[in-house]
Amino acid sequence: MGKEANLIDLFAAPGGLSLGFKMASFRLLAAVDNDENGINTLSHNFSDAMVFSKDIQELDGEWLLDKVSISRGDIDVLAGSPPCQGFSIVGRVKIASLIKKGIWKLENSNPRLIDDPRNLLYKEFVRIVKEVKPKFFVMENVHGMRSYRNGNSINEILNEFKAIGYRADYKVLNAAEYGVPQQRKRIFFVGNRLGIPNPFPEKTHSVCATPDECSSDRMVLKNAVTVWEAIGDLPRLKAGEGEEVTDYNCPPSNHYQEWARKRSSKVFNHVARSHRQRDLDTFNSMKPGDKWKNLEQKYKNLYGYRDDIFNDKFKRLWKDTMPSWTVTAHLHKDGYVYIHPTQPRTITVREAARLQSFPDRFRFMGARTHQFKQVGNAVPPLLAKAVAAGLREELNKAGM
Prior knowledge:
It contains 13 helices and eleven strands. By secondary structure, it is of the alpha/beta class. The chain folds into two domains: about 5-205 and about 380-395, Vaccinia Virus protein VP39 (Rossmann fold, 3-Layer(aba) Sandwich), CATH 3.40.50.150; about 225-375, DNA Methylase, subunit A, domain 2 (DNA Methylase, Chain A, domain 2, Alpha-Beta Complex). It has a seven-stranded mixed β-sheet with strand order 3-2-1-4-5-7-6, with helices on both faces. A two-stranded parallel ribbon has the order 8-9. Helix 1 packs across helix 13 (about 380-395) and helix 3 crosses helix 5. The longest helix has 17 residues, at about 380-395. It is globular.
């Protein structure tokens, strides 16, 4: 093992990337974000790191290096997940609307990715990489980036980093293939100025497209972690029940649960939403994996939603056959897309955190709505750990 590797994390809240790198033996020097609740979560869980509440557009690389007492070029990894709304389908629709209304005027018919006004934060990440000059950088984002502007955005990104002296590559990774109990595809850009190939992690788990495939033999990879393997040991709750701090009431039953409970004597953030009676009746009628389209008409009539628009309005999580579908920040609104597989309620913040691979010792701060947002926006720590492990190995080989 070489000397201790270090990390600076931008757009860091709530700390999924930071935690994953910490699991891979990196030391977090500094975390930067401007979300108040996320900052509180970072400060609570990374007490040995410097946490800065700062807008990235006002962040100066030289100032940041001075704060952590390190010279330019001595940072091992600069990581971040800049929100690039223009990459999402929703973002593209919004941009089209702004153009139509004359609010955003194009200077030409095919602007560069980095000139898109909704992608300014990505531009700032590139700037900080140039100013700090880390050995490696890691940038995570939505995998829809690949289809943005017919795929031209990928080459633009790679060229932006090449222009400041970095060899950059990318890969789309599915979190469920790295031990996370959730199907979550994200794109990771990795770059270095050492002139070596950029490492990406090998899959450790096999994910089935349907429950039937889960019974097939797997000769090399482990089975993906299922929803029930992830949350089945947490205290049962009725709608409206729970406490911010409570006790475990049963032992862990598998490796994932043992891992999640390590170094934690309490369960945090395990509070269930209250639900109306019509919701409880509807939830009780659903089997694991059921969606709105599977509901009897009498339950649909209670809500009046159109089938062609709200096909996924209600979704009950798989139990013991599949990982969860992607956990998103939309969870903070009502949670109907994340109905508990056996209990008539939507999932708690702690259950969502388990599906994101946050260990139980990691506590989310702020009101419950803000906790849900933080969990949904996070990078799964076990996925981050897989990425970080490859960088750590390369740094060791280089004697850094």
